[in-house]
Amino acid sequence: MATHSKRVLQAIAVTCELTGTQLSEAAARVFADDLAKYPEEQVLGSLSRCRREVRSKLTLADVIGRLDDGRPTPEQAWAMIPRDEGVTVVMTEDMAQAWGIARPLLDEGDQVAARMAFLESYRSIVMQARDAGVKPKWFPSIGHDKNGREAPLLDAVRKGLLKSDQVVGLLPHREDPTNEVLQLVEHLAKQITVTAQD
Description:
10 helices; 2 strands; globular
């Protein structure tokens, strides 16, 4: 813990200096203590982002909001939300909650208000989840277009967001026994990985 505190304190001090934020040594220690529940590398990565992105005084919310814990950023999450019920996507529970708040506004045709409601809700939901130490939970949202399911599902398997057995039975036009479908998913996911590396 001592090493963690020293590294984080140094990073906080540098970030504060570059953002024009004044913190006493005691305040910096409290700042570091508030961040101690998060993995050190995530905190250091977030402070690095803050040095590049924050244009006003540094806040705890600035740091927590930039933690890379596998969750999409608010803008990424908004872009991932399907606007068409035919589309299959893989999303987090945080995204689904925020979408539930924003969707009525989009249904009314107010794109701007829907986006703002989503971003605000998502930030709040993610902040609460991170404070509680809840990891992101991904799940497939299956659209009615069967032909559009395979690519997003296999991509999610390749990225480690879903396990192979989670997508078995969701792929279209597959009448193979379950174990053969599982082998197919794993084989295709490996192919995608090799292609991405090339």
